[in-house]
Amino acid sequence: MKRFFNTTGLCNPEDHYMVEPFRGMFDEIYHLIEAKQYFLIHAPRQTGKTTFLHQLAHRLNREGKYTAAVSSLESAGYPSISVSDANEVFIQSLYQTAQVFLSGAKLPPDPTHYKAGPQLFRQYLSDWSKALDQPLVLLVDEVDALYDDVLIAVLRQFRDGFQTRPQGFPQSIALVGLRDIREYRTWARADNPSIGAGSPFNVKAESFFLPVFSREEVRGLLNQHTADTGQKFSDAVFEKIYEYAGGQPWLTNALANEIVVKMLRNDHSKVITPDMVIEAKERLIEQRQTHLDSLADKVREERVRKIVMSIIEGSPLEFDTLDDSIRYCRDLGLITQKSPIRFANPIYREIITRILNSPLQESFPEEISETAWYLDEEGRLIMDKLLDAFVDFYRRHSESWLERFTYKEAGHQLLLMAFLQRVVNGGGRIEREMAVGNGRTDLAVFWKDQVVPIELKIHYDNYTLSDGLRQLARYMDKLGQQHGYLMIFETKPSTELPWDERVRREEKTHEGKAISVLWM
């Protein structure tokens, strides 16, 4: 059986195309194990953590100096479980999963011989460590799936056993999850992050963040398919895949799998084109698979909401959100690891904006998505007519709609995006550019051979128009277009600035480009 692009969990080199799992980190991690340290590995979901852990445990066992196993704590990750019950779940799970990595005398003790108690997990690990003729290395996955007292109890048991390592406790423990250790305090006790002098968090020596795939790693992954099948990913196709996925491991594999398996049905004689990548991207967004759908939960969190709002608006961040919220969103993989702060990749950007504006989109009257009224006889988009319809709708409904909207600060932009999305679903697509602090949101509507640049701005001061003209002209250069639309939203209520004074249209020329300015 040929290898394939894996999108469903643990990777292994016999079945799947794979990027080298350790990504240059093995030596540093091995040094911490040698030094009897406890450390943390964190990365967003579906970025290769489980594959990394399994490969690490197997490698340590093959080299013969340590006994290593992976254990997941996820099965106790629900709020109502007690500490004693969680401890029993932990040792049962560890006994079962250890058999994937070990056999015979290296296996942990039979858990049925143990009685429940608040120190059961520590005692079990202590007994196992004492029975082995090699130091134990334990890789503990899904630590941050635990809640409240259970999470604190686990970490305290690790801290208590730390002093007796390696003869009486694991020589090295890796805590693995979505968040860095600084987040565990908040996650464990949101109402009381300070847990006192007996902190269970002071045994961590180092923290590792698993990065997304580099350009070279994505190219190497795709080349494995070419080596196996002869089917090539051209430079143009590679660039599209890397652009849309941003190196995110699951997205990279999902795009390639969508093309090779779903669209081409494993016919390796067919040529892969850049247009297929665009279609694959749209299909993934429409399917909203679990990985992408999980973003919906994140955007409801207040720390995430602040960052998302600033990205969509293009507004600066409040200073008090800088350290906490940005780091949190970066740990979750939602935004770029470096400035400028923007969504981590175009697919996340599209999914998040669609999640936010879907209630708006579903509330539009049915006639808005009927195609006849905004197309000419040749089936081309009449953008003036479409935007005039939006202005009319916005004038009638925006104040009442935005008042009910969770993201009301970015609601003006989201309302237009929802309106356009409802329309272009009939045969086009929208691409967006946005980042914290850039003062704008850029949209490009693609319809057949038409490309329509649109820039959205909030009216803050006398510089809004001049800044918008300059910024839109640059965006039009990027798209190779000579006409675009600048839409400027007024935030004053209609009681202060009546609609008859607010809504107007102006035709401007900037750097030789024609720009229609719509005030509203």
UniProtKB/TrEMBL annotation:
It holds the Pfam family AAA_35. InterPro entries: P-loop_NTPase. This is AAA+ ATPase domain-containing protein. The lineage of its organism: Bacteria, Pseudomonadati, Bacteroidota, Saprospiria, Saprospirales.
